[in-house]
Design a protein that fits this description.
single chain, Gyrase A, domain 2, 3 domains, two-stranded antiparallel ribbon, 17 helices
């Protein structure tokens, strides 16, 4: 995977505000509609699967004022547009591709030059698992915020007539998340989505409580999203096997029946039990990691998360978060990992203070800092710290210190959890939960944020800007000299 960015491009805040104009400008730069095999997006990135990587005009993509950076992950070409913008540009991009698509289906994407046949199996698998869960993030955020608001109202004893309704609204999606995971899994791995959802629905069906496996009664939801993922993946394999062997005249009847029956029996008598054991182990490991590892575990997790974000691999952690939320009501990993964003903010502030002559860079920081405070790190990564080099490393130091502080509180019993995934930074406060109560949880998380800000700032101010040559000013003016000190 390679990451490229152009620190000399115009300030992202001054890019075109019309999503359709942005989509129309980017489409020919990636080779046109005929070169696009699939289109998706996450919180900040437009994710494209391309037929011919060589047809992309990289320099012009990076130079577009709305583009914050480019990430390449095997056959996936990711254009970083930032929060909000990507959600508006993607539908316009999809509409342009659809309107220009030929009647026949697209040919399979070709691997980029130099990529081994089949790509890198582990990275490809992580990317595909991420593709299953990324579309679920908006619902996880919305339901999580409502759950946090409902919890606050319950604690305050306010609006007792409304809280049951809010509970139903916040909990409905999580009660059926296995169905959505199954649907997306089948879609991602080439099966019929509704069959994947049908098999995954077995995981949450109340009637499985009457089934005994290995001397134990199954419980509805056992295995959670991991069981749903495995069940739907198996369903796609069974379906594809049937498609190649069942006569066409019988396909519409036999294939769906065998798919649901075979994958369903395997789910009930094996996958739910095995996935339940794995999910329990994940919960035990996460709790033990912070309870016994404390500051050391938090330091490592907080320090390593920014490189994962840069490489786009952080989405592969979503199944772990979702499993913990299903089991415990919150994930203890996200607040620790969120400290990476605090280190990034501190590093950007140090750059802003020290490099007073780099007006273009300072303007980028001013435009990207609000998103950074809300936990969206890509604008600061690609626009500030990564192009400068050392500040990216010192930002990781800030994240490590913040993670260490949150981990230390966890070791003392004030575990910090998040009831949803997606937000971080200040946006995570409404989602915080933990066994110590709201005040202790908020205090522990805020302490980590402040420590991350401070450590990122100090490390960057004193060590991250030595012998750093500031990139050319925005707009193409002459470059500034080395940063002071």
């Amino acid at each position: 995977m390679t990451t490229t960015e152009d620190p000399r491009k115009p300030d992202p805040s001054k890019g075109p505000s019309d999503p359709r104009s942005t989509a129309a400008a980017l489409l020919p730069l990636v080779g046109g509609a005929a070169n696009v095999a699939s289109v998706a997006h996450c919180m900040t990135r437009l994710r494209l699967t391309l037929h011919d990587r060589a047809a992309v005009r990289d320099a012009q993509v990076r130079a577009h004022p709305a583009v914050l950076g480019v990430v390449e992950d095997g056959a996936t070409y990711q254009i970083v547009l930032g929060p909000g913008t990507v959600a508006r540009v993607t539908p316009e991009f999809q509409a342009l591709v659809a309107s220009a698509a030929p009647p026949q289906g697209p040919t399979p994407p070709r691997a980029p030059a130099g990529t081994p046949p089949g790509g890198r199996p582990v990275r490809r698998a992580l990317r595909r698992i991420a593709n299953v869960f990324v579309p679920l993030i908006p619902a996880l955020i919305g339901c999580g915020v409502i759950a946090g608001l409902n919890g606050l109202l319950v604690n305050l004893g306010a609006l007792p007539s409304l809280t049951p309704a809010l509970t139903a609204i916040a909990s409905g999606f999580m009660a059926l998340i296995a169905v959505f995971v199954g649907y997306n899994t089948a879609q991602e791995f080439g099966g019929t989505p509704v069959l994947g959802g049908a098999v995954a629905a077995i995981v949450v069906y109340a009637g499985v409580a009457k089934v005994e496996v290995f001397g134990q009664q199954l419980s509805p939801g056992q295995g959670g999203v991991l069981g749903a993922l495995a069940a739907a993946f198996l369903a796609t394999r069974v379906e594809r096997w049937c498609r190649h062997r069942v006569p066409e005249a019988l396909d519409v009847l036999v294939t769906p029946t065998l798919t649901v029956l075979v994958a369903g029996l395997a789910t009930v008598y094996g996958l739910m039990y095995a996935a339940g054991k794995v999910a329990s182990a994940i919960g035990t490991a996460a709790d033990g990691l912070l309870a016994h590892g404390g500051a050391a575990a938090g330091f490592v997790l907080g320090g390593l998360f920014l490189p994962l974000v840069m490489l786009g691999l952080h989405q592969a952690l979503i199944p772990l978060h979702a499993t913990l939320i299903e089991q415990q009501g919150y994930t203890v990993l996200l607040p620790v990992l969120a400290m990476a964003g605090a280190g990034q903010v501190g590093a950007a502030l140090a750059v802003y203070v020290r490099l007073r002559r780099a007006e273009g860079l300072r303007r980028t920081i001013r435009s990207a800092l609000p998103a950074g405070l809300l936990g969206v790190g890509e604008p600061l990564i690609y626009g500030v710290t990564l192009p400068l080099g050392r500040p990216f490393v010192t930002a990781c130091v800030g994240g490590a210190v913040g993670g260490g502080v949150v981990g230390l509180f966890g070791m003392w019993g004030d575990t910090v959890g998040s009831t949803a995934i997606g937000p971080s930074g200040w946006a995570l406060f409404p989602l915080l939960d933990g066994p110590g109560g709201p005040l202790a949880t908020v205090a522990a998380y805020a302490s980590g944020l402040l420590a991350g800000y401070a450590a990122g700032f100090v490390a960057t101010y004193f060590f991250g800007l030595r012998n750093v040559t500031v990139p050319e000013r925005v707009g193409g003016a002459a470059p500034d000299g080395p940063g002071p000190g």
